[in-house]
Every structure is written in structure tokens, then in C-alpha cells.
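Database export, one record per block. Field names are fixed; values are copied verbatim from the stored entry.
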Amino acid sequence: MREFIDIIVVDDSREICRLIQDSFERENNTRLTAVYTAADAIKALKEQKFDVALLDINLPDYDGRDLLRDLHKEYPDLLCAMITGEDSPRSAVKALQEGAFGYFTKPFVLEEVVHDVKNAVEKRNLIRQLKVSRARVIQQEKMAIIGQLAAGVAHEVNNPVGFINSNLTTLKKYFGRLREFVTAQDAALQQHSSSDTVNELRKKLKIDYILADIADLIDESQDGAERIKKIVEDLKLFSRQDSGQTEMADINEVMASALNIAWNELKYKCTVNKELGKLPLTICSSQKLSQVFINILVNGAHAIAKNGEINITTAQRQNEIIVTISDSGCGMSKEVAAKIFDPFFTTKEAGKGTGLGMSVAAEIIKAHSGRIEVDSTPGRGTTFTIIIPVRE
């Protein structure tokens, strides 16, 4: 199915509208709507989606520059250009600063207007495709991390499931003994027999021990169930398709979630030391930042042969949040460290890594208007420093 470029022209000159309309009607994939006031334009935009708006500066009911600014805020995906008799560089610069892709002065060459409009639409479509591709790459890298961590996460879930099942088996046995004791106690009371028989049975069935142990078994099982719930929730949050939305979040909580997911990769190789400062809430994508932290933590674990350390610190410095993650692993040469954020660069064996993890991490931090730095010494370890601005 052919995709049309829908264009709205806002100009109080019917002659200008007709000329522009005639020019675009020669194109097979354009549809043009002409209106003569800003009020009509606003109404039309509410009723129909347009790709391009060509706005006259001097409208009878509105300043075209104000309309440009309003439309840019209300419809950020709408491509706007000015059509005007004002041949003023200053006016043109201001229009471009307000988000216009073009500034056409009357009398203009209609072929150039058509050419520039089509070019602007093509560029916008290309940017859309790049955003979709970038989101797909980030999601694929995220799923690669999940695949890498899957065995560890399964182990983390199996541990509490194991002792919950064990506790439930014991509780079932305890319940049988309690039921036997209560039945015997009822019978003894009905027969008015000596309490010695009941006391002997109480000892034989270890009723006092059972009553004390039941509370511990229940507490342990509840703790295990909460651990499972937290691991599953963190994994679900991390693995879901990113919506692009941001929210107010505590970076310390994001780090805790990342540690929870990556824990099985860390606990057998290293001690994790945390020094988390008090941080303000900031607008961010906690899902994407978690991806960055997990990637660095897992890479740090892989760099450690055994009995190493990973040190995590967070702090606020003026209007920035500083996160450092250091490992005592094998480190990197200056040449390798210089390439660490390049797409598809990896020091791992073939099939062991995508080479996109740190590249994606750098893109995510850049999208947060932040920066990520690496400092590494062969044989002594690596430190990643992440700096993001506080956004309220």
C-alpha cells in the first residue's frame, strides 16, 4: 500500500495556496489541504494527522512564528516550514531555532519547496527507522544478557524453592504428629486418665520441639518466597520491551535490582562491597540503567578468576549522580580500553559475546545526557565511572 505525504498549507492568500496545491498535485504520493487561518489549521490538525505544515508568517488571526512554536510543542513529529514575504536572515534563523526545517520567501520556486518537503519527510522517516533499529539492538542485547544469566537465575530461584519444599515436607510430618497428639489428648481427657500418658506421648512425638521449629520453618519459607518474588519481578522488569518512558527513580534501587539479577554470576567469584550515598530521585529509564549496571557487573565477574572483589559506590556531586563499579580482575591494556565502547568489539571467544554490550551501555548513558568513563590497568582491574545529571 502506497504511503501518502499529507501536507497542510496555512496561508491567507488563496492564490498562494492554489499554486502550492497545483505543484504538489503533480506528485503521486502527496495530499494537500489548504486553510486560511490559524484557527482552521488547529482544527484540521485535531481532526487529521499531517506530515508537513507550511505556515505563513503573517496570518490574520495569529503570528505564524507563534503558531510554529505551538505546533512544535503539540505535535513534535509534525514537520513545519515557513512561507513568507519577509526576506530577513534574522527571521529565518529564529524560525529554524523554533524547529522549522525550511524558510521559503515569496516569490519562491515551487519545485524547490516540493523538493525540500520530500527531503525533510525522507530524513524524518530515516530517523524513525534508526530509532526502531536502535531499540531493537538494545532489546536483542538485553535478551542476550538474559540468556547468559538464565542458568544463574534458575539456580537462584531453585535454592529458595528447594528449602520451601523441604520445609513444607517437614511441616506435613509435624502436622501428622500434632494431629496424633491432639487426638490422644482428647481421648485422655474424655477417659479422665492420668496426664502421664499424655506427657509421655508429648515427649515421644517431640511436640515442644515441633512447636518451636514450626515458627522458624514458616519464617524461612516466607523469606524464600519473597526472594523468588523479587528475582522474578526484577527479571520481568528487565526483560520487557522498553516503552521509552522515563520515571522518577532512585539509582541505588536500580543498582540493587541489577545486583539481584546478576548475583549468581558474582557470588562464587568475588565479594561485593557497596558504599551507597544518599541520592536524589531523578528522571531516568531505570530499565535501561539496570541493563548498563548488569553488563558492567557481569563483565567484572568474568574478568575475575577467583576470590576477587567488586566495589560499588554511588554519590551526588552538585547536580550529578556518580556511580563507580570497580573490579579486581585481569584489567585491560590502553589499546583495548580505547575500543571498549566500539560496536562489535569484544575480547571474548567467538560465540561468548555479542560485542554490543558496552556500546549499548554507552548509548544508554548518552541518552541520559551523561557520560561513561573507563580506567583499567592490566593485572590490577577496571573501574567504570558513570555520570548522569539529576533531572527533576
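Remark 1: The first strand starts at residue 5 and ends at 10.
Remark 2: The domain at 5-108 is CATH 3.40.50.2300 (Rossmann fold).
End of record.
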